[in-house]
Each structure stands twice: as C-alpha cells, then as structure tokens.
C-alpha cells in the first residue's frame, strides 16, 4: 500500500503532466496556425532570403590589413590562398607596377582602377597595394576591399591564362649556368632574407653578381619600393649577411625598374597636362 505522501506526490506529478500536455497542445495549434499563415507568403519570403544569402556570401570574407615599413604600402590578407595554390608558389610573388602591366590579372586591373593605386603585388596569401603619397588610405580602402572580395567570391583566375605561364620563373631559382658563388647568394637570399621581407609585404629579385667588384645587384619590389628604410635594410641587413657567409661579396646595390621609371614619368607628364588644362 502506498503512503499518503507518495500518493500526494504522484497526484501532483499527474496534474503537472496534464497541464504540460495541455500547454504543448495549445503551442502546437498556435504553431500550426502561424505556419498556415506563413505559407501564404512562403514563396516571396524564400526568394528574399535567397537574395540576402547571396549578398552575404559575397561579403563574408574577412580581410585583414597589415602595415608595412612603407607608409604608402599596405598588405591585405584575404584569408584564402592568393598565389599559394600551387606547390612551391607560396614563396613566389607577382608584381605589377603600372595599369598596363596589370592587364595580365583581372584583380590587378580592378585595383588599378582605384584612384591613387600605383602598384600591386600578389604573394602566397597576401595582396600588397602601393599608393600615391597624396592619396589617403581612408578614401581608398573601401574600393580595395570591394575589389578583393568580389574577385575571390567570383572564383575567377588570378592571372589570365595566356600570361600565367610567363609568371612561373623566379629570379632566385638556381640555373645550370650559375656559378657556385651565385648559387650560394641565391640560396641565402631565398632562405634568410626573403621570408622576413615578404612578411612586410615586399620581395626582392636577384639581378646580378659582379665577380670583379664583388657587388650584388638586387631589385626591391612590393612594399620595399620607395621605402625609406630599404637602404638601411640593404646595407646593414642583406649586405652584412651575404659578406659574412660569402667573403667574395663586398657590397649590395639596389637597381631601379626601368619600366616603373618610365611609367612614373608618363604619369607625371599626364598630371602636368591635366593641371595645365584646368587653369
């Protein structure tokens, strides 16, 4: 026989269960009524959500920006591979110093359309953009963000098919005709110098080594172009390291890009003509 306390407990539990069942039935009827009303507008609402999701998909890429030693260059990190899709390509970079060169890449073409952009470089997981000193980043960033997000959301190739093969060569690759000293220089630049420079959104090319004078000539690219600290980096960093490991090296010189110089002259000429016509 059950005790009175146990019977009271069971009775209370039964009442609670009955109330819960009744409440669930009311909620179910309410949900059914709401669902019936919602179904009357299901098609247009579904279309609206689909359109919203498409817009969100294009805008969900989180792009990080990183400053560089060059105040006129910024590194944009989209969180997806840029040139890192191929084996060994994570160390490779591709640079465009003029709108004409930028025609080889749909993304570079879009970036050069942003007022003030002077150069674009692609790395394994980053995009470096150089600007005109007179153009503020605050006005340029929204268009740069939009160009990068739209490109990587469209699944378009980074380089045009007819130009992708020409970008496979790397100045740091050791050739069969390179001397032992040149091979050592390239290996040191590749392993000791290049990684730290690329972290700052820049890069460098090996140009030549003069065995008579012991001078190594390199070309700075990306954020390193026009950077005030690049001279210090060359003398105290690259030159000191190379001469320490390779006694034949006596100095390091940076060479300018003739194409960039010509493009800068044409740009300055165009600015002068526009200024004269506005007077």
UniProtKB/TrEMBL annotation:
Residues 63-155 form the Scaffold protein Nfu/NifU N-terminal domain. InterPro entries: FSCA_dom_sf, Nfu/NifU_N, Nfu/NifU_N_sf, NFU1-like, NIF_FeS_clus_asmbl_NifU_C. GO terms for biological process: iron-sulfur cluster assembly. GO terms for cellular component: mitochondrion. Pfam families: Nfu_N, NifU. One of its GO terms (molecular function) is iron-sulfur cluster binding. Gene3D superfamilies: Fe-S cluster assembly (FSCA) (3.30.300.130), Scaffold protein Nfu/NifU, N-terminal domain (3.30.1370.70). Belongs to the NifU family. PANTHER family: IRON-SULFUR CLUSTER SCAFFOLD PROTEIN NFU-RELATED, NFU1 IRON-SULFUR CLUSTER SCAFFOLD HOMOLOG, MITOCHONDRIAL. This is Scaffold protein Nfu/NifU N-terminal domain-containing protein. It comes from Coemansia spiralis.
